[in-house]
Every structure is written in C-alpha cells, then in structure tokens.
Write a structure and sequence with these properties.
The protein is mostly helical. It is about 75% helix and about 0% strand. The protein contains twelve helices and no strands. Helix 5 packs parallel to helix 8, helix 7 packs antiparallel against helix 8 and helix 7 runs antiparallel to helix 12. The two termini are about 20 Å apart.
C-alpha cells in the first residue's frame, strides 16, 4: 500500500516529466500577461473612446486581466492533459497496480495539480496586474485600493479552480480528447451564448466560468446576480463536484 507522500512524489514526477505540462503553463502566463498588457496600452492611448458611456468607474484591474479568457483555455488544457495522458498511453493500469487506493491516487493528483496551478496562476496574476498598471499610466490603480488585492488573488484562485474542474471532468470521462471536446465548447461557446439569451441567462450565471469571473471584479456592476465571494463559493462547489465525480468513477469503473 503506497503512502500518501509517496503518491505525491510520484504524481509530481509524472507532471514535471511531461513536456505539455510546461508548455500549457507557460502559455497560461504568456497569453494572460501579454494580451492584458496589449489591451492596457491600447486603453491608455484611447482612454476617452474606450470608457465613453460606461456607467461604472473605470476598472484598471479588470483591464489588466483582459487576457485571462485565453489564459483559461491554456489552464483547462493543462488540467485535462495532466490526467488524460495516463489514459491515452495506458499507463493508468501501471499506476493503479502501484497505487490500488483510487481515492488516495486522485487526491494526490488534485493536490499536486492544484499546488502547481496555483503557483503559476499567482505569479501570472501579480505580474499581469503590475504590467497592466504600468502601461495604463495615469489611469492605473494599486494594491492598496479597495478590493484590488482581493481581485488579484481572485484571478489566481479562478485559474486554479478551472484547472482542477477540468482534471475532475477528465477523470470522469477517462479520455482527454472527449474531455476537451466537452470543456472547450462548454466554456467558449455554450456558456457565453446562454449568458446572452434572456430566458436562460439566469441558469448560465451559475456556470463555473461566470461565477469564477465575478472574483475579478473590483466594482459591483448593475444587473449582476451576486458578488465576488458568492462567485468564489459557486466556482468552488463546481470544482469539488467534478473531483468527487472523478473519484466515484475511478473507484467504480475499470481503467
């Protein structure tokens, strides 16, 4: 019977030895920070045009995080590949032979993936924020302003929870291609479309991406169903549900 520290070491070795892990995490940082910097620069150079007609104060933090939508895609792919690679190569059978306690195995995976994703997401969030504020010039804000530090940490928690949610879904589906085929259309087509349809947008407001994105808001916007802390709890509930679902499937189904 493998001990939990041994499971953690094994999972860490597997994650860092896969090249796609490095690339997807690097892409999460590059896309989030790079696109945020570009949009912050454009906003500063065309401030009056970009803010014309806005009913809420200018959100310098949200502008710096404008690139997080594409960063989400990279961190979702990381979560899927980190779990799905073992199924696509058949190595999951070797893993289960070495660690027959399936609940312990998935917990170890979640701990390693969560810690790695949060570390990268936290670095990405702070660098994206400071880079964006530097390029916003006189329209920038700082961490001492109300709710700004919470929004920066919210960005890190949001990316981390998306990663773990994707890992849990992949553990349920046992197939990384199928998981990407479900998650990418859900987050980048279904959720945005439903959020714009009057009769069903209330339901879409409780999807994990919409709920998690509330954590990045510095100012309350009119028409929003809930605030950042409720968004955090809703996104956390989706993440835990996906991981529990993955654990149940892993326990009750052959690899």
């Amino acid at each position: 019977m493998a001990s939990f520290p041994a499971v953690l070491r094994s999972e860490w070795t597997k994650v860092r030895s896969v090249r796609s892990t490095i690339w997807t995490l690097a892409l999460t940082f590059a896309v989030t920070a790079g696109l945020g910097a570009l949009l912050s620069l454009l906003t500063n150079n065309n401030f009056d045009e970009f803010t014309r007609g806005d009913s809420t104060p200018f959100d310098a933090t949200g502008t710096a995080f404008s690139g997080i939508l594409l960063g989400e895609l990279a961190i979702i792919v990381f979560g899927v590949l980190a779990v799905g690679n073992e199924y696509s190569t058949g190595m999951i059978r070797v893993t289960l032979a070495a660690v027959p306690q399936r609940g312990t195995l998935l917990t170890g995976k979640a701990v390693v993936l969560g810690a790695l994703a949060f570390t990268v997401a936290l670095v990405t969030a702070f660098i994206t924020f400071f880079l964006g504020q530097a390029l916003l010039g006189g329209h920038s804000t700082d961490l001492g302003q109300p709710h700004v530090l919470r929004a920066v940490f919210g960005a890190a928690f949001y990316l981390t929870m998306l990663c773990l949610f994707s890992a849990g879904v992949t553990a349920m589906l046992h197939n990384q291609t199928l998981a990407l085929g479900v998650l990418v259309p859900f987050f980048f087509l279904l959720s945005p479309i439903l959020s714009a349809v009057p009769k069903v947008k209330t339901l879409a407001h409780y999807f994990p991406d919409y709920a998690g994105s509330r954590m990045l808001l510095v100012y309350e916007q009119s028409g929003q169903p809930y605030g950042p802390w409720a968004g955090f709890l809703i996104c956390l509930a989706w993440t835990l549900a996906a991981l529990v679902g993955g654990a149940l499937v892993l326990k009750n189904r052959d690899a």
